[in-house]
Amino acid sequence: MGIKEVDGVVIQDKHKASCHCGAVELRFDLPNGLEELRRCDCSLCRRRGAIAASVSLTGIQIIKGKERLKLYQFNTKTAKHYFCDTCGIYTHHQRRSNPNQYGFNVACLEGVNPLKLESIPTNDGVNHPADRQSG
Q1: A Pfam family this protein belongs to (predicted)?
Q2: Are 89 and 82 contacting, i.e. CB atoms less than 8 angstroms apart?
């Protein structure tokens, strides 16, 4: 089950989000609240410092500014990271570890302060599971 309340702020079933400048607006379907909260220590996530939560590919709607979103890929070029081309804020990414999900920047959710979240686990993105060879 996800977190339905953050520091007194209820996570809405359909929660609006935006980049810093407002050029990009999104709506996330979050009927279970914030699910699979995490940080990552890969080279990109370490630098951006965002807390990400999960949503299915069908659980995101770009309300405004689709043309403002820029794609950034690196390493295997599997994950698709999206940023506002005006203010540079990371909004979401299609995951490498689970391409059927988006990770999204919790800090973009309206009315949510991610600094109030405690005990967020950090995934080992340096030694990504997709890089490990079996056998």
Answers
A1: GFA
A2: no
